[in-house]
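note to self: dont lose this again. the chain is below, predicted strucutre after it. 396 aa total, dont forget to put it in the shared folder this time
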Amino acid sequence: MKRYSTILVWLFLALPLWAAAGSPQQKIQKLLDRPDQKKTQFSIHFVNLDTGATVFEHYPDQPLMPASNMKLVTTAAAVIQLGADFTYQTTFALLDDDLVIIAAGDPLTGDPALAEKNQQSILLIFEQICQQLQQREITSIAGDLIIDNTIFDDVRFHPSWPADQANNWYAAEMSALNFNDNCLDLYIVPTQPGRNVEFYTDPKTAYVNIINHCKTKTAKPNTSWAARTPGTNDITLKGECYAKQQIFVTIDRPSAYFGFLLAEYLLDHNIEIKGKLIIKKIRDDLGHPPVNLDPLLIAQTPLQEVLIRCNQRSLNLAAECLFKTLGAYHNLPADFVCLQGSWDTGKAAVEQFLNNLNIPSSQYRIDDGCGLSRNNLLSARCITTILKHMHQHPAA
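---
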């Protein structure tokens, strides 16, 4: 089972004429006139990209909930405001006796789809850090493992997202330091009928506490499921299992999740961190890292990879990291490396992008980057304006 969904796309660009009788406009109008559509709201805008002329419209300026079409706005704003050559750079370094991580907001660290595409393990980043330490013949870290994730604020679950969906992979918490889409892959294995199932996780970790109430059954279907108690990493297995099953469970505090996994990986390879896992700011007020930082590794993810995960496989985490990244670099003062990204600053950046395209504010309402919030609104004309702009943009 793969962790992605199909994007629901409105029809807002001009299509070739249908071969059958009747114009495209007549065919669309016939669909709209069907009795079963009378209670449905539509905002439709077809545009000829060659001429810019409107081919068909139906309440084109009426803003409606866009769902995952919101990602088109977020990614377009990212290309224009961050630049097509933007690259996330996560720094792993030594600082005196400490091992430090300066997070950049990269959503694709350990991303399973990207790892599969590159024929790599999701644990590659841990392998690379370990190799750098081994090359220096470092067998222990005398100090702490320090994570600076302050390029984003610490609001990890959007206040407008449905709280009852927080266990679903598409509503995973987001942070400036992420891993495996901020999920734990949980595998449930049946045993003897009526007895508790066995289970294991990938990656293997003690970061979560799993309580097993799931039973083995003898007939289809699987009804096993997992629930994480909000604000904790206590996971309870429930239901019944007939055949081996994979479940994706979201985790709490993604930055700590990454740090915990790294410490476990290093310990498994005979490198012990003597101190604590600490999350705190080590950049200065302008966003500069400490001058005595000793880099081990700078992990890079190009914007293009994030755009693909965001738009082709509708990864909400990718959209939200882009959204807050936009906020972190929006209206950057002189001498600043970055500010702090948040949903508020991301909203301001996206609204500025739309304003620069002369899209009236009556045609949109921005609340998050992925469309999971029901408070987002976009008109069809808003989206065609963005798509026309990106079609003509040299970087698109």
